[in-house]
Amino acid sequence: MGVDVYPKTLAVIAISLFAIAPLGFPQTPLPDGAGKQLVELICSKCHTTERIAKKRLTKMEWREEVTEMLQEEPDVTEEEKDQIIDYLVKNFPANADAKPAGAQVP
Description:
The chain is mostly helical and 106 residues long. Helices cover 58% and strands 0% of the residues. The protein has one domain.
């Protein structure tokens, strides 16, 4: 019985740590611009800003990503989603050589 509890306990601890990671660890600063506050407020609930800053997608890919991530967030308006997408496209474009203005990406 004790053997079965141990893996379950570890799983609960691991899941808890991943859930609170965006709240408890230093965040990569995001570049200033329209939509930054929305990304910090909405996207950073689940994702670190470092994870967001490392991702490079086209506008279509960002739209798909944001739509999928926010499908169960009825309080986020279409206008806010569009602002988030525009911010991500401008600052984290698909072209790996493009560097977002003011970003400090390792």
